[in-house]
Structures are given as structure tokens and as C-alpha cells.
TrEMBL record:
<feature type="domain" description="DUF4996">
    <location>
        <begin position="2"/>
        <end position="60"/>
    </location>
</feature>
<dbReference type="InterPro" id="IPR032160">
    <property type="entry name" value="DUF4996"/>
</dbReference>
<dbReference type="GO" id="GO:0006629">
    <property type="term" value="P:lipid metabolic process"/>
</dbReference>
<dbReference type="Pfam" id="PF16387">
    <property type="entry name" value="DUF4996"/>
</dbReference>
<dbReference type="InterPro" id="IPR017946">
    <property type="entry name" value="PLC-like_Pdiesterase_TIM-brl"/>
</dbReference>
<dbReference type="GO" id="GO:0008081">
    <property type="term" value="F:phosphoric diester hydrolase activity"/>
</dbReference>
<protein>
    <submittedName>
        <fullName>Glycerophosphodiester phosphodiesterase</fullName>
    </submittedName>
</protein>
Amino acid sequence: HEKGLLIWVNALTLSDSIILSAKIDDDTAIAHDGESWGKLVSIGFDIIQTDWPLLLYQYLVEKNKKIKIKENYHVQKL
């Protein structure tokens, strides 16, 4: 952040045997009301790579997390 760089984290869950982010991942987020995504935000990550972008977006909105989205980006409700 000090150098003006964005920090990216991968929250993808590959399998039970391949752990990428200390179980602070998509599966944990879905099982525990987005808790792990909130932890990633509180750590300071700017970009969270996820297989569940709509659920992450909804979590961030519900929890009033600071969201930085490009102006031309939109979320379509299903």
C-alpha cells in the first residue's frame, strides 16, 4: 500500500488437501456467513479472488465494507 500497489489474495478452495490461504477461503466463508472474507478485508487485501463473486459482493454490502468497484462494473441480480 505504501508504494501505491493493490494487494490481491486468492480465496479459492482447491481441495481439502491443498490449502492456499490457511482455511480463510470460499468454503469457510460460505459455511460461516462470509466470516473468512471479512477477515481478508480486515487484513487489508484490496482484491479477493473467489469462485463466488456475487456472494462476496452481497456480504460486503450487508456488512457495510468499503467497496472499490470500477464505475462501469455492475452486478446483475438473478
